[in-house]
From TrEMBL:
Name of the featured protein: Amidohydrolase
Pfam families xrefs: Amidohydro_1 (PF01979)
Entry annotated with the keyword Hydrolase: yes
Biased composition (Pro residues): 7-20
Highest taxon of the lineage: Bacteria
Key words of the record: Hydrolase
Location of the region described as Disordered in the Swiss-Prot/TrEMBL record: 1-22, 463-483
């Protein structure tokens, strides 16, 4: 009989609820002693972490750290694991007011929904919408989001302020489209340079450039934004090969598929963060692998919008860098990781008899460290390690979903739930406790967002193909009665 691992997470019996938030907000360094620390090498039993300022001062065996830091009182976290915060590699923070409007809609909805919606946002609405999205992300376990650039006619500092005030790390995109705008390439590139400098020293805001789709920018701007971003250690976010309409437009306009076109104009390289990349030929996979470009794999968006599913297991095998993104669908990191594995299983694994589909660790890694690398922050966040940013979660695994544990990475992917998140830390600070912020009024923000969203959506010239689900149900009932 094959020996099975002992179900040992957590090692200790179930205990009453852990410490209060006050113990997690000390004046000095913080010594955290959970049952398990999820390190880059896997789950480590009886490990601890010391947080000083915004970084991990030390990570290692708890007994060893107690000897090294005798002046610190360990905060015992029975029934908890300490794991990296998740990274959302593709978000649209200012689209949150219309998230549910996209349900049941066909693919490529940006012209009918997102452009008019964002165009109807004023300054207050931009700030509130972005902060609401940041709150949802934090509640779902994301400590970093990559904002792909708003189309709202406002200064992007409003989006930065919302993320900063919410307490989430944000890779902030500035849209650099110039193919169909009044701005010429020189003006767009000058703004891009200023944006990269403006946020280059911030703690939570990291500058990025963005182009909606390759045909939205001239060849010069595609090439020069790539050059500017590479020099600044930033990324350029572009929606690439997302759906058939986009591929066909590129073929008609340039005689090349979108990713091939980026390569041809000199915009393909390690600085590129290609959002979606669902429709890839073998040649395009080779271009990604050879260039060092990164991808945001967005499995929930693929399902909700009817796109293809990016070949993420193939990307992993070929060493292509990628993270996981929500595309603003829902800010729930555990469900995103599960969707990433599930989509691969349905799209590729069943056809080939691949019962592993990357296993649990693949999806945890690309939802955290791999995602951080994809958005240009691999040296800063995404892992529990000495010197890394203290962006992490305390997750309660003492309940019925996780108590009987045989393979923690798999269980976090398939059975993890955002309701199990006790605390969210970003840059060493406790940002959320049991789903709500401690330093600002989360419920008040939600109430204000509900008020503003009604006004914004009523003014925006949004065009929906499908009725709401309730209206569709009534229409179906009427058809049945008529027959």
């Amino acid at each position: 009989m094959t020996d099975l691992p002992d179900p040992t997470y957590p090692r200790h019996p179930v205990h009453p609820p852990g410490p209060t938030p006050d113990r997690l907000r000390p004046d000095g360094a913080l010594f955290l002693a959970p049952d398990v620390v999820l390190t880059p090498d896997g789950p480590m039993d009886h490990y601890a972490a010391v947080v000083s300022g915004d970084t991990f001062l030390a990570v290692g065996p708890a007994e060893q750290l107690e000897r090294t830091y005798p002046h610190l009182t360990p905060v015992r976290l029975r029934g908890h694991i300490l794991m990296p915060g998740f990274v959302d590699a593709h978000h649209h923070l200012t689209q949150t007011f219309g998230a549910a409007l996209a349900f049941g809609e066909p693919s490529e909805i940006f012209r009918r929904l997102w452009v008019p919606l964002e165009g109807a946002l004023d300054e207050e609405a931009v700030y509130v919408a972005a902060k609401l999205a940041a709150l949802e992300s934090l509640r779902g376990g994301f400590t970093t989001v990559a904002e792909a650039g708003t189309r709202a006619p406002v200064d992007v500092e409003l989006v930065a302020a919302a993320a900063r005030d919410a307490g989430i790390r944000c890779v902030l995109g500035l849209v650099c489209n110039d193919a169909d705008s009044d701005a010429d390439a020189s003006t767009v590139l000058a703004r891009a340079e200023k944006h990269l400098v403006r946020y280059c020293t911030e703690e939570l805001i990291h500058p990025s450039l963005a182009v909606s789709v390759p045909e939205a920018a001239t060849a010069r701007t595609l090439r020069d934004t790539a050059r500017l971003a590479a020099a600044a250690g930033a990324v350029v976010q572009i929606h690439v090969n997302e759906h058939l309409a986009a591929v066909e437009r590129s073929l008609v306009q340039h005689g090349l598929r979108p990713l091939e076109y980026l390569h041809a104009v000199g915009a393909l390289g390690p600085q590129l963060l290609a959002a979606h990349a669902t429709l890839l030929t073998p040649r395009e996979l080779t271009l990604l692998a050879d260039s060092g470009a990164a991808v945001s794999y967005n499995p929930v968006a693929s399902a909700w919008k009817g796109n293809a599913v990016a070949p993420a297991t193939t990307m992993a095998e070929r060493g292509i860098r990628f993270g996981l993104g929500t595309d603003g669908t829902r800010g729930d990191a555990f469900r995103l990781a599960e969707a990433a594995e599930f989509a691969q299983r349905l799209a590729y694994g069943l056809a080939t008899g691949d019962s592993s589909c990357g296993a649990g660790w693949t999806w945890l890694e690309h939802a955290s460290g791999g995602g951080a690398d994809a958005v240009g922050l691999g040296a800063r966040t995404g892992r529990i390690a000495e010197g890394a940013a203290a962006d992490f979660l305390l997750v309660d695994v003492s309940g019925p979903e996780m108590r009987l544990s045989w393979d923690l990475p798999w269980e976090l992917v398939r059975r993890g739930n955002r309701d199990q998140i006790t605390a969210v830390f970003v840059a060493g600070r406790l940002r959320l406790w049991r789903g709500w912020p401690l330093d600002w009024d989360g419920p008040a923000l939600v109430r204000r967002a509900a008020e503003l969203s009604r006004d914004v959506v009523s003014r925006a010239p949004v065009t929906r193909v499908h009725p709401t689900s309730t209206a569709a149900r009534h229409a179906g009932a009427e058809r049945s009665t008529a027959q």
